[in-house]
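seq as requested:
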Amino acid sequence: TSVKEEKKSYSQKFKIVEETVSDYIPESIESYLALQITYNAMDFLGVRYRGGGTTRDGMDCSGFVTTVLNIFDIKLPRSSHEMATVGEKVSKEDAKIGDLIFFKTTSRSRISHVGIISEIDGDEIKFVHSSTSLGVVVSSLSEAYYKKTFTQINRILI
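C-alpha cells:
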C-alpha cells in the first residue's frame, strides 16, 4: 500500500498529530505509521527525565518508547534490554525512520538505552529519546557519546 493509502487507514484508528502542512510526507519515509510514530514522539519533546516514568510528568528512555508505541497499540517489553530482542536487527545503512536504536551506556555489557529514529540525512541518523540529563530530546548518532555507545538498530514495523 502507498503512504497516502496508509494515512487514510491509520487516521481513522489512531491519535494523529498533524503537521501544519497536513499533506507533507518526506520522500525518505516509506510508512505513514512510521511518520505518525515520529510525530507523536516529537510531541513529548521537553518532558523531563524520570526513572520508571511513562507520563508527561517524566519518563525514562524505555518508558518514552513504550508510551509512544502504545498510542498505536504496539506492545513491547518495558526495558530497553528486552526491547532489543524484538523485531529484526538492521544495519545503520538500512535504518529507517521509526526503527528503534539501542545503546550500551553503562559499564555493564548489556543494552541500557533506547530511542526512536526520527530522521535520516545521508549518513546522519537522528533519534528522539529520553536523556537522563536533558529529558526528551533529539540527538544524533554522529555525536561522540552516541557514536561510542551505539549497539544496534531494530525494525519493529515490518
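The chain is about 25% helix and 25% strand.
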